[in-house]
Fold this protein.
Amino acid sequence: MTLFGLGAVTLILAIPATSAVILFLLPSWRISSRLNVAAALLTFISALSLLWQRPAPEAYILVDELNVVFVVLNTFVGFTTSAFSASYIAHEVETGRLNSLHLRFYHAMYQALLFAMNLALVANNIGLMWVAIEMATLTTVLMVGLYRTHAAIEAAWKYFMLGSVGIALALFGTILVYMAARPVVGEGLEGMIWTSLMARVSEFDPALLNVAFVFLLLGYGTKVGLAPLHAWLPDAHAEGPTPISAVLSGLLLNVALYAVLRFKLLLAANTGAIAAGPLLIVMGLASLLLAGFMLYRRRDIKRLFAYSSIEHMGIIAFAFGVGGPLANFAGLLHMTMHSLTKSAIFFAVGHIVQAKGTQKLADIRGLTASHPALGWSLVLGVVAIAGMPPLGIFMSEFLVVSSTFATQPLLALPLVAGLLIAFGALMMRLHGIAFGPPSENNAPVKASYLPMLAHLALVLTAGLYLPPPLVEWFQHVARVLG
């Protein structure tokens, strides 16, 4: 096989899967951290080739306009996070928080997670997609508990229990889709293949599809972090290694959202089925408003940005719920900008926590004076995630609000209110963290600035100028989403 077409799909699966086995066997954490970066880079390069040539759908593999967006974003952030992780892990080893055995497990699980997410994105079989998302869930559960503290173990168990409930609901929804397909396409594999389902879905029993989607939305919505199914997310972010917080916010939430969008397309192709949009709108607004108010009560810096992730996944779900070319375009752009911005914020937060020796907001003060590069990087990231111009998230939020005013103006009122509530909370928190007299706990830290600055540069560029090929690509995907 060549690098193109099916060969590229093979590589984005084979590279992380093979690397996971090798990394588990390597005793040296320095070598394994470099190999982790190299494997993630090769996976990203392989994913880029899908922009030019894609294989025809097969029984288990599908590459189309929709999932290429997710695959390229997934592999890029996976690569930059691995580069940040190398410097982050070095500090954790030097301070004795992690040992070589922990790191062999950590690096192996990191590549296993990338494999599972990539598999979920390119699967043409809805059962295989469920298995891949379950694998990604179990992998991140193990990584959240990596520090083996009481709080980390508790967070991992909470994530496992809530994630298991969600994934069980998604499994039941998947089975119901198969039951709806069986009278039309027959027994066996055809009833699980996405392309076969889309070709015949207009003949399916709409009542069975409706019930299936409710279970699928609740199940995969748990993984997206949508309210009221979000309870696992703040604990997982706060207690796990910071690179995993970046991957959770920047990648895994998107993968679960991708599954929801796939089934939304299925319902839209059956004229008798319910409209999925209103359900996404309700859960999106609930997430936005809940997270906006909860931001005011956070005392832990990683929990603060975990609730910010819930807020932004709510905005994205809302945009896709509104639907139409403009709202779908805004949802895709906001998803991309959020992944880049939030992972950059966690890159900064990871080194800040190492420098200050605490995650408590009360003990993190005056960063622009004590650690100017980290402090101003965090300021830029928070200003971006809050939606200030001229950064990319301002552009995507403006498009979400504009499309809502154009189609459903009454919904724009709670949307704008939620955005303003979250904006106020983030600005209030940023003032204390970044400015004023610095707190006394100021340990030196060797920070990795390149991944963070690369993400922020992309977000700034997107706010000022979107290349026409990117706009055309997102417009085409937006039309596919309906």
About this structure: The chain has a mean pLDDT of 90.
